Structures
1.
Amino acid sequence: MAEKSGVLAKFEAALIYATRELPKDPTMATLIAQHSASIHDARVLDVALALTGPVLQDGVRNGDIRRDVSIGDLARFLVEQTYLAAGQPDRSEEAVANRFRQFIAPVLMGRGQSAECASPTEQYEFAMLTAMEAVENLRLRERLQ
């Protein structure tokens, strides 16, 4: 998240990372499997608030994140979405990014908005961030080959 600019890009990167990595951890895999109990655990929400709270608050201050829902509820929503994404058969970066852009970002942004319906400046920023991330991914793949 720290490497990304823009609150939505930060959360998209976090969801991609968590969806890829959490199921690999035995403890997290167990929590995900028992999500109906663990998702409501106060410790899970505490960790989520510690990780996402400051970014959500920045997003609210900047007007990127809706103001009509509490930070705690937004953090809880992100935890729920992370659990759901981590439990999907297709956890590829593309699938997770699509899930984020189509469903999670519009909820974070508020009613009547989506990544596609954002202001022209926001659309441009989102497109540029997506393109820069794609270029960086290609560079990483080239280095690994």
2.
Amino acid sequence: MAKATGERALLVAITSGVTAMPDSLSLVVRQGDTFWSDHPAVKRNPEWFAPFTATHETPGTEARIEQATAAPGEKRGA
């Protein structure tokens, strides 16, 4: 798990499991679920989580997408 810095961090579950919650209910954690670092499930099972890293491209660097329809006066070719 990420080092405690006193700041809230977004974490991702790296494993699945079921954990008890303070209100006597159980919580199902699935691999890939995201939680804030101060969530009770993270505090009870820190080994289940790792820092979340976004994998999407930054604006302006995404691949160009072909226009799906022809503009007025244009014909779409095959």
3.
Amino acid sequence: MKKRLFTLIELLVVIVIISILMGILLPVLGTVRTKGRIARAQAEMKGMITAVKSYEADYGYLPVGSSSFGGVKTGSAADTVYRTFIEILSGADGPDADTTPNGTTSYGNPRNVKYLDVPGSYSSTANGNVCTGDFVDPWGTLYKVYLDSDYDGQVTTPAGVLNGSVFLYSFGPNATDDSCSASKDDVCSWR
């Protein structure tokens, strides 16, 4: 009996079919990865909201005591206040070389209750806008947090005035602040 081998044409046809299937599959994998990151951002924001509400239930006031951080202000001052906010909720000293340690501010966490889990890489070394170990969204930017610091039941966010006490958002996949416009990719806790 004579063995039949694959011809060059048959091999090329198989390679073309595999290439077509990969061309169809790769964009789908990217979409699935993006949707997974969006789901992670939403889960982290829900966790932060729960942490803030638990903190408020225990201490009777919101952490940090100001609505202007993580998005209302810009530059290092907003980043420092955001890091202080995360330190208060986590009971861990984070990347904020220029602020006082957790629990020593008037809006601290003197009982050092852990309301929020932070990444294992969370540390006390700061070197710029986003530091190694910062509590960031899946795309590497700081979450934007808005609190009802005057306790009137309303918070002014980029999307307008919302009823509630705490709202968060992430810049999303494009890492650009689109002010939670409905047509953009920001991930907002109120949507």
4.
Amino acid sequence: MSEQLESAMAVGKPLLLGLVIGVLGWWAALAWGFGWMSHDAADRLADHQTRTALVAAIAPECMARFERQADVPKAWKALNNASNNFTQTSFMKKGGWVVTKDQKIPSADFDAIANTCADKLLSMKQLGKTKMAAKATS
């Protein structure tokens, strides 16, 4: 009986190896050839695309609210003097330009909008009819 078991195992090893290689090959074909991805990867991709679309839609509104305030040059100068992205994002949030009071946006999206809005505002050479001077480099 042990000879039959050894014979079966000898046949089974290549079969098992072929099955494993076939499964891995099929998985690779699905992933790279047909664009298949795991549920978690699809969720992460969808979240990223949603955040990107939300930021693209709301950042111009943020910029418009910033431009409509009474003293644009003073606010722009304060934003320009902010030392880093965190400070700029905080400044935009405190100023109330990021979203209107009736808009409910998750915190991470809110920060992404504030950061994008600040970056775009700082890259502008002119806000309304006022020319902006770039930050002096040290």
